[in-house]
Each structure stands twice: as structure tokens, then as C-alpha cells.
DUF3231 family protein
Amino acid sequence: MEKSNIKLTTAEIATLWKTYIQNTAVRCFYKHCLQYLQDEEIKSIIVEVVVLVETIIGKVETIFEKENFPIPKGFSDKDIDLSAPALYTDLFALSFVYRGGQVIIPHYANTLSRVTRIDIYNFFAECLYSETELHKKSLNLMLSKGLYDRPPSIEYPQNVAFVEHQPSLINTLLGEKRPLNTLEITELFVEIERNAIGLILLLGLIQVTKDKEVKDYLLKGKKLAEKQIDTFDKLLKENDHFSGFPLTMEVTNSTTSPFSERLILFIISSANQIAVSALGDALAVSMRKDLTAHYSLIIAEVMKYGDEGLKLLIERGWMEQPPQPIDRNDFYKS
């Protein structure tokens, strides 16, 4: 990696710090999976994931060391029990790689628009390329195993059309609903898919968590994910040709937790942040008033749930503080 005398910007510090923390967390998840995977094709992809994650962690550490910047604590082998029985099936491990790519690829792409130092830019460009290749492999393997349900298809339109003027706002709000357009269908499908995978993740964590407070919090998350699946599935089924996302059980009968409670709460808190962003994207492209109302309400519920999780992390002393600038107000105190 090229050497630079230019100090890191706040954007570069933030993205490097966040990337490091998140990669140390997912490393724990995949290291647990690797202990029990039976399917050789899936195992090969998970090995690739672990190698990539370890490489990214190592490169961020090197950058921080050269900058004399404190290396975050993140997560380590202390947060996993490699002797614990498998918690999820091989198929869920593959689905997790695919779903992870849907989140990580936009993260790296967005990061490229925020960083300016060329060595940092090149690092995240490499991350983006590697993650895209992994995502493609996981998608192809899911398709070959018949695990992936493609988003709904439609008959191609015959011509270009423009939205007709609605003379009455009451008509728009309370009148007969128009059919969903492709933008709205896509977002509903993606939201169902995201929540279905999240629900399976939660079911496994609830099953093994012994801490009552943490378990109660996870149970709230389960109800929230189920509510979203039901709401969005109902909206899709109103259009005769579309049906929702089938949920299959990919959790074993293990009751021994492979993960620390701190790691479990971090994973769910990260999922909440992703949910708010994804729901915001869906809200932004939806033009039907009932959809915008649903998204607005659910965003508020997810944010409230996320706040409860952050409070729990802080109360337990488990939340690592992001890098802070100097508080100059301290200098002004007499």
C-alpha cells in the first residue's frame, strides 16, 4: 500500500474504523460455521470469505499502525466458542454470504465517494472488487442449488407512459389503489427477503442466549421482523401475480451459544442500522401513499428498537466508542 504523509480525514477514519469492527464481528460468525460445514462447495466460499475478512482486518491494522492511530478492539476468538455445536445449517451460511454482499457492496461503493487519500481509495476499491466477486459466486451457487427465489417478473410494457394528473388529493389518499409499479415491487420483495434472513438469524440466537435481558430484546426483534414480513407480503399479494418470500428453517437444535452476548447484540444493532437505511431507500422510491405510511411507521419502530439495543450495549459497557475529535470545550473551562 502506497505511503502517504497526508493525514487521514474524518471520513477515512470513520470508514476504516467501521470496516475493522464489522469485519472482526463477521469473522467470528464464519469461523463458527467453518467448524461444521458439510457441503464442499459452500465450505469453499466460506473459506474465501474468512481469507478476505482476515486480509481486510490486517490491512486496516497496518494503516492504523503507520498513522500511530489506536487499533480498535473489535471482536476476537474470545467472543466465539469453537467447541459449540453448529447453530445454523450450511444453506444459511451460504445465504448469509449472499445477504452480506447486498449490504457490504453498497457500503464499499459509498465509501469510495467519501475518501480522498489515494492509498485508502485503492484499498476500498480492492475491497469492493473482492466482495463483488464473492457475492457473484454465492448467488450462482444459490441458483444452482435452487435456493434463491428471483424477484417477481412482469410482462414488458408496450410503450412509454406518463403519470396522469390526480385532480383530488382525497382521491389519491383514499381512492382506489393503483397496481404496484416495478420500483415498489422490488423494494417490497427485498424487504421481505432481508427480514426473512434476519428472522432465521434471530431464531438461532434466541435459542442459545441464556441472558434474560438479551433474550427479551431478541424476542422483540423477532416480532418486529415477523410484522414486516407479514405487512410487505400482504402488500405484494394484493397484486394477483406476486407472492411473498418463502421462509425455510435453517436453525439446528443446539442450545449452546457459539457467540458472546456482546457479539450477539452488536450483530443485531448493525442489522438495525442496515434496516433503517434500506427502509429509507424503499420509502424514497415509493409513490403510493399507503406504502409511504407503512414505511414511515416501520422506520420509527426499527429506530426505537435500535435505541433499546444501544442502551443495552452501553449499560453493559460493551459499546466501543467511535473515534472522537478533541473536545475543545474542555480547554475553555476555568
Q: What stands out?
A: The longest helix spans residues 40-66.
